[in-house]
Amino acid sequence: xxxxxxxxxxxxxxxxxxxxxxxxxxxxxxxxxxxxxxxxxxxxxxxxxxxxxxxxxxxxxxxxxxxxxxxxxxxxxxxxxxxxxxxxxxxxxxxxxxxxxxxxxxxxxxxxxxxxxxxxxxxxxxxxxxxxxxxxxxxxxxxxxxxxxxxxxxxxxxxxxxxxxxxxxxxxxxxxxxxxxxxxxxxxxxxxxxxxxxxxxxxxxxxxxxxxxxxxxxxxxxxxxxxxxxxxxxxxxxxxxxxxxxxxxxxxxxxxxxxxxxxxxxxxxxxxxx
Length: 274
Prior knowledge:
This protein is mostly beta strands. It is built from two helices and 22 strands. The strands form five sheets. A five-stranded antiparallel beta sheet has the order 1-3-22-21-20. Strand 20 (248-254) and strand 21 (257-262) form a beta hairpin.
């Protein structure tokens, strides 16, 4: 009960613009509903460095499943949170969609390109970024949907095993996930130049990346292993949770609330971090 009380307090005190009020209210209502039902779906980490070598913060974080809703988007492939609004991209259609936590499609933006598997947002430029998986290019997107200033990653060009995730870290660098064969995370500077690349051994594939400003960690998602990983600054795994989701393809945080989108299910899931 104490962890739920703490979560409610964190939701109410979440910093950010008033546009976040909608999702916070949805989370509160959903949390109360979930707590009234029995049993509550809690997911404990199966990897947890706080209980193994003591180098983490000593708190074993659980995920509380709050809700899942049908998403009115065909083959959603990623998620990103922008000023309290949730966006996804479809690899069936060349569009970016604003969606609600309830799964409703609120607006859409037609964009150029195909095989679009990853979506991010550059706060400094106020622009979306999308990745063309098959051509290993990351495009900046104008408000009218036109694309420009591509970032090319030739070493991520790998047919259907290319770029699957984009996110900016606390240092302003862009982190890019290559899906598999092998799975890698690239770190790029502000000019798009490669700073480093890390081969991933903790998962057979990567399907999404996001940065959680609340705890300062990168999070990686594996489609094949149905697993969410929290990463240290050296990209070693800090914690990991098995998710009850088929083909999870996108993740985004809004304070202590985690959203996960499933490609094959065409559903959006909501979890609270306790």
